[in-house]
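Final report, Chapter 2: Outcomes

The project's central promise was a pipeline that accepts a single protein chain and returns its three-dimensional structure in a standardized token representation, suitable for archiving and comparison. That pipeline is now operational. To close this chapter, we reproduce one record exactly as it appears in the project archive, with the input sequence first and the structure output second.
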Amino acid sequence: MRALPVVWSNDPEGVGEGLSFLAQATTIEPNYPLALSLASWCHAQQVIYLRSHDPTRDRETAVSLAQRAARLDSDDPLVLTALSAAYTLVRRLDLAGPLLEKALVIDPNSAWAWQRSGWLKVYLDEPDLALQQFERSSAHSIRSGSIRSSV
């Protein structure tokens, strides 16, 4: 749980700190799908935001962690959304879409899942659908009282 605020911050140092917390969590519980999926997303962010010293390694790590997490849990919408975010950022759009669809079936009120769906539609060059997803995300964020933005 200590990793969440720093992972959400999207701050370069925060992502490193988040990865450290997530590594500690997976040392204690190697099969912790939320920690694995968030670590996958962090590694993907390192690549997409040009923070990585070894983009190929970080991309491979993101995919590997995502695959492990997906094998462990396919019913937690937060895990599914984090996995879809990681897959989107490393351009595995074919894997991101079904995860988001499932996350939204399980939790149709997830502002983050709707936001990630909007980003996926941007990457798929579907701007009209992207706008609809972003609007839906905003509506759910306002209703829940939390507005977060993360790419």
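Archive annotation: DSSP finds eight helices and no strands in the chain.
This record, like all others produced under the grant, will remain available to the consortium after the project formally closes.
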